[in-house]
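Exercise 3.2. Students should predict the tertiary structure of the chain below and write it as structure tokens, then compare their answer with the key that follows.

Predict this chain's 3D structure.
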Amino acid sequence: MTSTAPQETPSPLTADGTPAVLYVCAERAGSSTLATERATEEGHAFAEKHALRIVATITDPYGEPVPQKRNGWMRVREMAECGEVEVAIVRWPNALSPDHELRYPELEHLGKHGCQIRFSWAPLAVMAGAGATR
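Answer key:
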């Protein structure tokens, strides 16, 4: 992805499953789209396995360590604040931030609005009930 604008793709709505947003922050400027494709496929498989209904897929380019400086992440926060989603699916913690201290406020913020972050990458998905809460 060469643009810094977030990409939001609406997903087909079905009545079944807990509403979730798939957040993908994997692609560096000028790199291939393989990481984004893999994270998206993994997120959809995770959602299906855990009865989650993806209502939107939001992407941001990787590299900005402060989540609140990313337009796509701010859209995820907005969806949680408005009660549109109960789960944010993220491939791994570095998609939130490579700085672990910057992740905690995001976990807390989403949690205050009834939304939890769940990691779709298999080694993390099996830990702590397949999600992160604070």
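Discussion points: The mean pLDDT is 85. The first helix runs from residue 34 to 49.
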